[in-house]
Amino acid sequence: MADDGAISDGSDIYDGDTEIGSNTGSSSTSLSSESDLEERHAVGEQWVRNLFAEDDSDDSVFAGFQAAWKERDFVERLTMDFRGIGGASVLHPPEANPEMYFDQFWTGEMWQQLVDETNRYADQERRPNPPPPSAPIWMPVATDEMRAFVGLCFAMGILRLPSRNDYWRVSNWLLKTNFGTVMARDRFNLIWRYLHLANNDAPGAEGDKLIKIRWFVDFLNDQFQAVYVPYGKYTVDESMVKFKGRLEFRQYLPAKPTKWGVKVWVLAESDTGYLSKFQVYTGRAPGGQERGLTHRVVTDLVDHLYGQYTQVYFDNFYTSPDLLTYLHARQVYACGTVRANRKNLPTALLPKNVNLQRHEFKVAQKDELSFVVWQDTKPVCVLSNFHDPTAMGAVSRRVRLGGGAQQVAVPAVVADYQKYMKGVDLMDQMVGYYIIQHRSKKWWRRIFHYLMMASAYNAYVVARDTSPEMVATEWPNFQDFLEEIVLWLVGEVRSRRDPAANPRPTPGAGRHDIVKMYEKKRTCIECSMSAAAGERRGTTKHGCQQCQQPVHLECVSTHFHRLFNL
């Protein structure tokens, strides 16, 4: 949708050679009556001015008295500055690690909730239906083990394999991973089986279709808004969480890359894609909606922004004159493409009534609203409640012959829409790169993994805002940042059956202990010796106590083989 808001030529918006009273006959009568009506409106407007002020030079004070759209003699619109304070709510030291940023969203309360509800659900399932003796033994999960489980889920999004069990392959050395070092396959599958977010026996709101994830959704919504405040520019759009199983509120959106799934209404920062607020759509609300679905969605997402003069951008699914007037009265600036069949638009400027050349545009104004119809490859209509109709901008468009790009002059409302209508798409892009895609019959798991990855990306945005130089040096890409979170979540957890978890030196060769030795990560000595030129070397906080060298836990066996010539 963002491509629809684009550019225009600096063509005239009013033809001064055309005179209103030039026609004759019945047309002249019609136009004459229209002129009389406009004159009466002008007299009434002047009368109101005289009531409130002696100086009527500031027409913007009297916005709201125009009875019809006008295509000339525009009143200048001055916008107010953003009244909020953008940025992270907590300042971190320059040397802060990714785990410190992620820990702001997934706090100790979150981990305790996951542990408690997972153990409770396992007990609820296994007590009435005991598993067969051959089944893996269930032991209650602890917090550090739950963190390692989530870390492995993150890792599965980075390193994608066809099925979960492929991460524990032992038959082909070329395709093996180190997942078995952290957690046994059966243990991981058990936690996956009993992972839960809410107590099934607890009473919930009647008719709440999200009861299984209600606490999780509300908790993250609160954390997303508390940890970071965007810098005054937002995007509202829908995001799709892929799911093809049976579900009452599953949606089909043929125009989206993800066509089947759960729809999520998203409010994201325009520049960074930071997920600020969201709602999971569960279908038509009982009793209907007084102002319509899109009006309810937008107002629910931005109600905490009232009075701050933030700028919100959305596409033609949401935009209407009534909505923009409603938001303007609450000090929320809004802009978006608009469908030509919406009510209360200027009829004379609708695409079916104008014939524009490529990059030509026309503008109309009514009270606080500015309307633009601009001819790109097809007509594009844009509506705003804060743009000055005379302000101009520029957008880039491809040249038809010869290739390349050119800057095209357009009204500022069109240029700003194209610039800032990208927040949700950017968030979807970054989350989609690394979200775990393994199939499940439980729909809420898809929401869990979606919000889990969104939390990690939000942490990355906060880190870039707080320590931009540190991020540019240590984690220039989101994947670098995510890998650090994975290592931190896994921590010291090791599989009980994995011999590499507690390496033993060769008998008679002396004692060599691998322990945590460093506060900051250092380059592994074994990785440095084996890495090819230009290849990235691993870092670790562990090392060999006797050799006083940093050593990866994954490189322990290599270290012993080199020391003892095994």
Automatic annotation (TrEMBL):
InterPro entries: PGBD. Residues 1-39 are annotated as: Disordered. Residues 98-460 form the PiggyBac transposable element-derived protein domain. Residues 21-34 have a biased composition (Low complexity). Pfam families: DDE_Tnp_1_7. This is PiggyBac transposable element-derived protein domain-containing protein.
